[in-house]
Amino acid sequence: MTDKKALQWLEAQYEASYQKKGASNNSGAWDLVKITKFAEHLKSPHTKFKSIHVAGTNGKGSTSHMIASVLQEAGYKVGLYTSPHLKEFRERIRVNGEMISHKATLEFVRDYNIYVTSENLSFFELTVAMAFNYFAQQEVDIAVIEVGLGGRLDSTNIITPEVSVITNIGLDHVQFLGNTLAKIAAEKAGIVKKNIPVVIGEYHKETFPVFVEKAENLNSEVYLAEKTIQQIYQTDLLGDYQQKNYKSAVQAIRLLKSFQIEEKHIQNGLLNVVSNTNLQGRWQIVSEVPKIICDTAHNKEGLQIVMEQLQKEDFQELHIVFGVVSDKNLDKIFPLFPKNAYYYFCSPKIDRALDVYELQQKAEEFGLSGNVYNSVSEAYIAAKAKTTDNDVMYIGGSTFVVAEIL
């Protein structure tokens, strides 16, 4: 298989899987059978490095990057697995901030594409296996592993980490995880392992008892980060929601055994997340004049914080470039959005994108008015043409919308 064909095959897996099926394919096949078998075929690479496992409805990506950054500041060789990617597949798999090489990616595809096809593995199962294999080859000191979706049946859940982290719980992906916070919490709690400490980012009366019960059954200590971490830290990640995420990250770091991490490493790690790990899309300012902000928040809990922060900005007019995928509950999302903004409705270039006219019609029910555009880029160009130096533009609604701008 030539490099070109290997790359085409990988892109085809992505197109046929995640972009079309979405969240249902972002965890694997809803069991751990095939990923376990594949890992055994690869000689169990996930057992050859230490790890930290991070789940949650919101903030798990940012928290994972924060933890990785601190560990890098302490001088460790750190693997980082996250999903989905924004611009390029290789973003999912990093060592000390550097993406997996083209060579390593294509070698894995060439070596295992027949196995993946014959065993009918999902794109997510493929990427998890590739990440674990790469981290083992690179002999990382530790890897930070972000859950794709849920936890209990997520393909990443074959690891036994040093620490488990669950940032928070919200009503997202209810068609897969359950329609109550307690049911979703039970799925996330599936990453808790026997005798392994677990960090819970935020207290919620419906979910915290679920975590405590699960931990007690497994003899695992529970640490509630919002209470255990009182020290205030600065971070280069600008979103207001990051003030919650860093507490989970710091608590996880402090629970690591056999790692020498000093306070200066924590401080510097949180201040240099972007440069250390190359995180993108979290309250990312792509222009100062006029101010243009991209953010990948896409559910009620995440967007509520983002919209509150957006209203704190100093602007004459607010312009919002907005598109979503079809599974989003707009009845929950649109009440959060300001009515005194100009909207530019668009659809990202994926099969699962919500029809832009349907999006506009739904928005109008909530008093949000704006024009329809054929693409994200057209909406962005139109918004830029109308945005003055004293205005603010916000781009969001979906990871895929932000990806097209970046």
Describe what you observe in this structure.
- This protein has 406 residues and is of the alpha/beta class.
- It folds into two domains: 3-277, 3-Layer(aba) Sandwich (UDP-N-acetylmuramoyl-L-alanine:D-glutamate ligase); 284-405, Alpha-Beta Complex (Protein-Tyrosine Phosphatase, Chain A).
- Helices cover 42% and strands 14% of the residues.
- An eight-stranded mixed sheet has the order 4-3-2-5-1-6-7-8, sandwiched between helices. A six-stranded mixed sheet has the order 9-10-14-11-12-13, with helices on both faces.
- A hairpin with a 2-residue loop joins strand 3 and strand 4.
- Residues 19-29 have low confidence and may be disordered.
Please provide a brief summary of the model:
By secondary structure, this protein is α/β, with parallel strands linked by helices. It has helices at 3-16, 18-21, 33-41, 60-73, 102-118, 123-138, 174-177, 181-188, 208-217, 225-228, 242-255, 263-271, 273-277, 300-311, 330-333, 356-365, 376-386, 399-405; strands at residues 50-55, 78-81, 93-95, 98-99, 142-146, 163-166, 198-200, 222-224, 284-287, 291-294, 318-322, 342-345, 370-372, 392-396.
Tags for this entry?
single chain, 406 residues, Protein-Tyrosine Phosphatase, Chain A, 2 domains, eight-stranded mixed sheet, six-stranded mixed sheet
Question: How is this fold's topology laid out?
Answer:
Layout: H1 3-16, H2 18-21, H3 33-41, E1 50-55, H4 60-73, E2 78-81, E3 93-95, E4 98-99, H5 102-118, H6 123-138, E5 142-146, E6 163-166, H7 174-177, H8 181-188, E7 198-200, H9 208-217, E8 222-224, H10 225-228, H11 242-255, H12 263-271, H13 273-277, E9 284-287, E10 291-294, H14 300-311, E11 318-322, H15 330-333, E12 342-345, H16 356-365, E13 370-372, H17 376-386, E14 392-396, H18 399-405
Parallel strand pairs: 1-5, 1-6, 2-5, 6-7, 7-8, 10-14, 11-12, 11-14, 12-13
Antiparallel strand pairs: 2-3, 3-4, 9-10
Helix pairs in contact: 1-5, 3-6, 4-11, 4-12
